[in-house]
Amino acid sequence: MPSIADERKAAEDAKAVLSSLKPSTPRFKAQINILRVACLAATNATSPQLLSQMALVHTRDAAVNALKEVSHEWSKGTLTKEVIFGAKDAVEAWLKALAEA
Hints:
The protein is built from four helices and no strands. The radius of gyration is 13 Å and the shape is elongated. The chain has about 100 residues and is an all-alpha fold. It has helices spanning about 5-20, 30-45, 55-75, 80-100. The chain has a single domain, classed as Four Helix Bundle (Hemerythrin (Met), subunit A) (Up-down Bundle), CATH 1.20.120.
């Protein structure tokens, strides 16, 4: 399980990738790997948690789903601003929840 610091770093890196994305951005392996690392960090951190951390678990899940949607739509060439903005919002919420953890 990653530390909160490692998880926060992965989220910050994903945020940086999302901030640079536009629907027309070419897909580069390095950017996809950053999104995958963030997904793995959030997924691995959601193993058995205390009931008091359920909000963080739900926020992580939302970030994972949003990042996966970006990757999927990007690979199909159908990435939209709405998908990008949704992922940005999900990652921002994840970072906020981590700061409060």
